[in-house]
Amino acid sequence: MEVKKLSISWQFLIVLVLILQILSALDFDPYRVLGVTRTASQADIKKAYKKLAREWHPDKNRDPGAADKFIQISKAYEILSNEEKRSNYDHYGDAGENQGYQQQQREYRFRHFHENFYFDESFFHFPFNSERRDSIDEKYLLHFSHYVNEVVPDSFRKPYLIKVTSDWCFSCIHIEPVWKEVVQELEGLGVGIGVVHAGYERRLAHHLGAHSTPSILGIINGKVSFFHNAVVHENLRQFVESLLPGNLVEKVTNKNYVRFLSGWQQENKPHVLLFDQAPSVPLIYKLTAFAYRDYLSFGYVFVRVRGAEEMTRQYNINVYVSTILVFKEHINKPADVMQARGLKKQVVDNFITQNKYLLAARLTSQKLFHELCPVKRSHRQRKYCVVLLTPEATKLNKPFEAFLSFALANTQDTVRFVHVYSGRQQEFSSTLLPHSEAFQGKSAVSILERRNTAGRVVYRTLEDPWTGSESDKFILLGFLDQLRKDPGLLASEAVLPDLTDELAPVFLLRWLYSASDYLSDCWETMFHSNWREMMPLLSLIFSALFILFGTVIVQAFSDSNDERESHPPDKEEVPEKAGKTEPSFTKESSSKVPKKGFVEVTELTDVTYTSNLVRLRPGHMNVVLILSNSTRSALLQKFAFEVYTFTGSSCLHFSFLSLDKHREWLEYLLEFAQDAAPIPNQYDKHFMERDYTGYVLALNGHKKYFCLFKPQKTVEEEEAMGSCGDLDAALHLGEARGKPSSGPGPRPLKGKLSKLSLWMERLLEGSLQRFYIPSWPELD
Predict the structure, then answer these.
(1) Minimal CB count within 10 Å: which of 53, 172, 706, 780?
(2) Are 649 and 764 in contact, with CB atoms under 8 Å apart?
(3) What is the distance between the alpha carbons of residues 298 and 274, in angstroms, rounded to a whole number?
């Protein structure tokens, strides 16, 4: 019993000491270790480090803790001498990489403690020891800078499978055997492998969105996708395969193989065919197709399917061995063949690399031009490009076929054959072609050597157009033989413009691809990503919806309150007021229903003059119709009809003014109209006969200005109405005819206010001219 108690006490003591050691390691402060302040300069930090390093170096200091102290000093200087690590420590209390140091300190001290107390290893053995468990992951460990600078760019050539792990993770231990098996298989196929330790690389784990361990994710084209199924070998393999685009490899049969192989001219790529017995495309072939998708097109033939006999017989395929054929400009005969019982990544990569380009590829982009015609590095590394400048043709013409046969017979490694469609690359072609009518619409051959990446070349164009005859071939062959001996034959110099990217998708397709990728990312994020990442987006969406529906609800309640206030309790019991008219609506205007069912028009008299004009509230206007006793009924109905749609505004008031009673007041106001006609005087024989009926004034009592509507001339009904203050020499309708107007008929009255609604719209827009007066005159 006592032995058991003593054993428990020893275990408790060991755990306590270990916890204290860990806490002391976590309390690492580089400023305190070096004895400098947080504002210390690099010179002060370096000076303090040298002083402490000489003092605590284990070779000079015999103190038992000298080695430990020297490690702390070195680590502190490593953090503070690096501005990025120092900034991370100042902001987050962690340099981003010091977790490895803390782990190293814990392991060192634990081993030191273990050696001093001599207890059996099984006494305190856990499977969490990273030194043992992570030995297979050491070469795959990723750091943030390595991930950003190497993994992300490389993910455009191959997918990456990454595991996020940490210490004290039970689930991480359970998936170790499966992970090890999958890594050994997929790495041999060309899949990139990575391991992120969430404890040491918290920044990278947060960047990837891995907030729990273990997490397995894939990266392709810089995009991160999480694995959400059970961690078994087949699921992980299918996950990697699902990362790849679905259109990498085309299934080829007897029905479509001619079309597939004939696509070299349009796509400007060699075409690859794999003949195999597996019903599905091998993963290694898909990975190869993804890596070289910009250079070749890939197809797959299942040899056991019915209808594949024609191809296997035509190309003499051994159906029991995996066979890869590469086709270039000739579809009847493969340019290269590879047979193997088991496809190996290195062998397949070497085979594909040797056949990346056509025999005489078309220059369709500047990138392809750089690859096919590299810049001269030295005199021993000269690379010449023989360029055929030819018009575009749907079928192979004789000049191109002769050029192709010449390229096929070429054995010089320093010469590359390419062709250019002169119609698509006009600037490029015009730089190399001589200015002669002999080359118009014909093919020509130029030999060039690039001198720098800015486009400077030395070149020589053959004197005669290229027809593909035997004499042309002999001339070109002789020139290339002389060029090997005397590079000075390329006597002409020029700066070539950049080539236009012929195969780039149009803007609409690029937009559709971007939209599709964005929608797929949103779908993935909505249903599979960690909800912690979704919180900002969800918060934004719900905030926008709340504001939207809140605005709609407030507007709905506001409209209902306005309608309740505007409708009288009982329309039948309200007595009719003087000047209150009911507009006569037609079917066309019945859809324009304001909040009120009538237009309230009051007469402007000496009683209502002060309240309706002089002391009118700021921002309110009184729209006044000028009429006479004889035109009162007709004009009021037309006025009510025109302004009915504007009665919903509480800032507008409607009145009418009798011309028979207040002519002098009106003509006093019209004197302030800038371009008005001369106001008649008492000697004018038509002084009392001028017709102002149909004029409308918008009066702003607070700011002392008015806007004027002049009725349309009945003689010129097709002309536009008068704007605010647009008074011409004919100020009244009677004078326009040269005789007084004695009561207009129904037709002229109907047209007087026909444009009033448009004038009201301009009034509400504030685009009408304003005429200011010093003060409102008395209404006599």
Answers:
(1) 780
(2) yes
(3) 8
The encoded tokens of residue 684 equal 């004018």
Residues 6+ apart with CB under 8 A from 413: none
Distance CA(173)–CA(151), nearest Å, equals: 26
- According to DSSP, the residues that pair with 706 across neighbouring strands are 699, 771
pLDDT, greater one: 378 or 769: 769
Cα-Cα-Cα-Cα dihedral sign, residues 601, 604, 610, 614: positive
Q: Is the pTM of this model over 0.70?
A: no
Q: Which stretch of 92-101, 461-470, 684-693 has the lowest confidence by average pLDDT? A: 92-101
- Judge whether 674 and 771 are in contact, CB under 8 Å: yes
* Statement: residue 192 has pLDDT above 90: yes
Q: Which residue has the higher pLDDT, 531 or 202?
A: 202
Neighbour-count burial of 19, counting CB atoms closer than 10 A to its CB (0-12 exposed, 13-18 middle, 19+ buried):
exposed
User: CB neighbours (10 Å) of residue 589?
Assistant: 15
User: What type of residue is 481?
Assistant: D
DSSP β-ladder status, 297-302 and 271-276? parallel
Which residues 6+ apart lie within 8 Å of 104 measured at CB? none
Cα-Cα-Cα-Cα torsion 420, 426, 429, 433, nearest 10 degrees, comes to 140
Stretch 587-601: mean pLDDT: 56
Q: Which domains does the chain have, with CATH numbers?
A: 25-92 (1.10.287.110), 135-243 (3.40.30.10), 249-355 (3.40.30.10), 361-495 (3.40.30.10), 598-678+689-712+751-779 (3.40.30.10)
Residue 769 φ then ψ, to 5°:
-75, 140
**pLDDT bucket at 310, cuts 50 / 70 / 90:** confident
pLDDT surpasses 80 at 364:
yes
The 3-state DSSP class for residue 707 equals strand
Token representation of residue 616: 């009118």
Distance CA 436, CA 443 (A): 13
pLDDT score at 561: 54
Percent of the chain past pLDDT 90, that is, above it, reads: 25
